[in-house]
Write a structure and sequence with these properties.
elongated, 4 helices, three-stranded mixed β-sheet, 3 strands, 74 residues
Length: 74
């Protein structure tokens, strides 16, 4: 992780992408105190499949039609 002052960050804006590719993360400081952290954004985002979402869902003991009917009849 590389640390840059605000002045150094302004001067290196033109090649900030190369700096992030080399370092992975850059911390920007003001008077030695960290104020910001820059990281690369992954271009490829994984979209979960419906099968994976259904597999993680909590299964109800009663069917939804039974729950709705009981709530309606109260």
């Amino acid at each position: 992780m590389k640390k840059l002052s605000i002045r150094e960050a302004r001067q290196s804006l033109s090649h900030l992408d190369r700096l992030l590719a080399a370092e992975g993360e850059v911390t920007i400081t003001r008077r030695g105190e960290p104020i910001a952290r820059l990281t690369q954004i992954n271009k490829k985002r994984l979209i979960p499949s419906h099968r994976d979402l259904r597999r993680r869902m909590f299964l109800m003991r009663k069917g939804s039609e039974t729950v709705v009917r009981e709530d309606r009849d109260l």
